[in-house]
Request: fold
Amino acid sequence: MFHKNLDSFPKDFLWGASSAAYQIEGAPTEDGKGKSIWDVYSHEKGNTYHGTNGDIAVDHYHRYKEDVALMKKMGLKAYRFSVSWSRVLPKGEGEVNPKGLQFYRDLIDELKKAGIEPVLTMYHWDLPLTLQEKYHGWESTKTIAAFTNYAKLLFKEFGTKVKFWVTINEQNVFTSMGYRWGTHPPKKHDFKLMLQVNHHINLANAAAIKLFHQMVPDGMIGPSFGYGPTYAKTSDPEDVLASINANDFNNNWWLDVYCTGKYPYFCKKQFEKLDIMPKVTKEQQAILEDPEAHPDFLGINYYHGGTFQQNRIQKVVNSGKQEQFDKTDPYLMQPQQGQANEPEVPMFNNVENSYVKKTQWGWEKDPTGLRITLRLVYEKYQLPIMITENGLGALDKVENGKINDSYRISYLADHITAMQQAITDGVEIIGYCAWSFTDLLSWLNGYSKRYGFVYVDQNNHENGSLKRIPKRSYFWYAKVIKTNGADLGNEE
Ligand code: BG6
Reply:
């Protein structure tokens, strides 16, 4: 579609920014918090860059007031954060930790006082350790019940204060990293098990949404999905078919289940033939297909897409293990969504795209891919969309006490323009939460790879002063918010 002029952003558009508990809070055992799988995994040798972990992170647990004050000064309309499950339920189930609940109550109150809409993510990867030890985490259906009870607690506590809820963050990413590529806990390489675990999480997501609709009738809930559009390498019909296969597995495999309760037909057939399709009982199918268990909006996390060619067998590329990190090279890579392709699943191969530039970490910069994403998702599911993550990971430098991250401004401006084009095309978008508000711990890249509007003096030895310094992008985004997206200019 071509437009002479772009539509304005909706009047109440939620200009926001995001974070996740493990990446910012620190205080891993303070005030009765139980450990999560990440508290252990990041301390095992070789799992993360230079052994970086979230023990201190950016100390948001102690500095949340200062952070919210910075949000207020910026004019932020929405803030997406996650609750650490083991902070409120130290063992994942059973006894509640009142101090943990109090922390989130205080945070939400502080946000509301500042006129900022809280967007609460219930699960951003930090599964309570006890559930992993007792049940093997998501491998067991017992964790579905634990998650549903955790959801009940959160809805009861915060249902009247928080309107926007995200159930699960990037289910496609953490199941792949944890069970396929072995780069997140529990570090397994078992595709069949990944599909089974994923099925359990689908059921947990559906159960939580259904409960939400009973307990918080005025709220809106949905998962945040890490979407990547799938391009064909050439117009060779075989490559086009490969890109369709990739779309079926990389995107539809999750979104179709969330929104319709049905696994995509062809992919399912393929997995049945390979004997790796999880067993779906009649009762489970009914849970997934129940309209009350379907989302009210879709959270879309967008960083980049992927390009595909016909299904030649390809080895797993870059398992993201510590040994592969070149310590002298700050431009670290980590496996990307859809990058690996095991020989036993010969549906497509992921290849380079020569049309797009890359970030310092090798992630494609593709704003048009965001417009494509929004169009495809809206056309298929007809649900309002909130962009729950989008941002640029870069090495930021402090010079004379300032951070001139004009490259981040350009990146965000290009993506916001693509989003505005999608709005003009007719996509219903309710908000945009950039990743991230402050700098934070990158799961596998420590504190080198920064995303924030606010610089935090933290480093890979974890002995920074934790001082906050607004970057140039902070002031730019304040202007974007003030003009409701009308002024995206990058001038000094
Ligand atoms: C998303 C996650 O996948 O990507 C975030 O939801 C994460 O938690 C972000 O930080 C960026 O990833 P990375 O590896 O660059 O920090």
Observations:
- The first helix runs from residue 21 to 24.
- Residues 14 and 467 are 27 Å apart (CA to CA).
- The domain at 14-482 is CATH 3.20.20.80 (TIM Barrel).
